[in-house]
């Protein structure tokens, strides 16, 4: 049987959910989910399937602070899955998601099964806020929380300003989009969109999600 040629890496990260798992063991990640009917394939096919209904798991990639395995697919969307995987592997797991049509963006950082940071908004409406923004988030326009009476109230006021066509009256964080999510991923782990056409360390896996995580 001829050896699989995975081809150059193919970037992703726009209009999809992905996890960054701090580990060098791709197969351990796939087993822990678990994924059914896993197989190695070329990068182009793997990314196409991740945008359909399967999950892509990359080989170990160098990023901020060490090696990371990325898993992509909208089946990964619930934050509970990132928390569960972080606890199971006793490592850091980051979640990122964008959806251009609804204006949704989300990111989270879990360490050893504990949720340290979680931000999500849908079309200008705040959906989740846990923890305090770090320097990388503040550089994107996230509020420092200093001097804010209530984040929920600020969110309501800013959403009303956007709806009224007065974006300059809203805080910059409500205008954060998918490019900002990719910038943050680069600061926290690595930007999967920047993988495009680079030579990879091996083939990715694809598999069917089977976990019962809400």
List the topology elements.
Blueprint: E1 17-21, H1 26-32, E2 35-40, H2 43-50, E3 55-57, E4 61-63, E5 66-72, H3 79-89, E6 92-99, E7 104-111, E8 114-122, E9 125-130, H4 135-140, H5 151-163, H6 178-188, E10 205-209
Task: Describe the overall structure.
- It is a single chain.
- The chain has 214 residues and is an alpha+beta fold.
- 26% of the residues lie in helices and 28% in strands.
- The chain contains 6 helices and 10 strands; from the N terminus they run βαβαβββαββββαααβ.
- The chain has helices spanning 26-32, 43-50, 79-89, 135-140, 151-163, 178-188; strands at residues 17-21, 35-40, 55-57, 61-63, 66-72, 92-99, 104-111, 114-122, 125-130, 205-209.
- Strands 1, 2, 3, 4, 5, 6, 7, 8, 9 and 10 form a 10-stranded antiparallel β-sheet that branches.
- The protein starts with 16 loop residues before the first strand and ends in a 5-residue tail after the last strand.
State the gist of this model.
This protein is α+β, with helices and mostly antiparallel strands. 26% of the residues lie in helices and 28% in strands. Strands 1, 2, 3, 4, 5, 6, 7, 8, 9 and 10 form a ten-stranded antiparallel sheet that branches.
């Amino acid at each position: 049987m001829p050896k699989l040629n995975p081809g150059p890496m193919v970037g992703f990260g726009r209009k999809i959910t992905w996890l960054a798992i701090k580990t060098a063991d791709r197969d351990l990640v796939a087993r822990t989910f678990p994924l059914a009917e896993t197989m190695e394939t070329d990068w182009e096919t793997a990314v196409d399937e991740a945008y359909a209904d399967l999950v892509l798991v990359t080989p170990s990639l160098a990023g901020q602070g060490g090696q990371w395995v990325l898993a992509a697919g909208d089946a990964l969307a619930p934050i509970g899955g990132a928390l569960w995987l972080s606890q199971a592997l006793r490592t850091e797991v980051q979640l990122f998601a964008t959806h251009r049509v609804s204006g949704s963006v989300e990111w989270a950082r879990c360490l050893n099964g504990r949720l340290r940071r979680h931000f999500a908004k849908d079309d200008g409406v705040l959906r989740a806020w846990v923890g305090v923004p770090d320097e990388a988030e503040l550089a994107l326009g996230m509020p420092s929380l200093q001097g804010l009476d209530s984040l929920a109230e600020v969110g309501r006021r800013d959403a009303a300003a956007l709806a009224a066509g007065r974006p300059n009256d809203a805080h910059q964080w409500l205008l954060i989009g998918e490019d900002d999510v990719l910038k943050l991923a680069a600061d926290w782990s690595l930007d999967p969109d920047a993988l495009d056409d680079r030579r990879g360390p091996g083939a990715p896996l694809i598999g069917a999600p089977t976990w019962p995580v809400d």
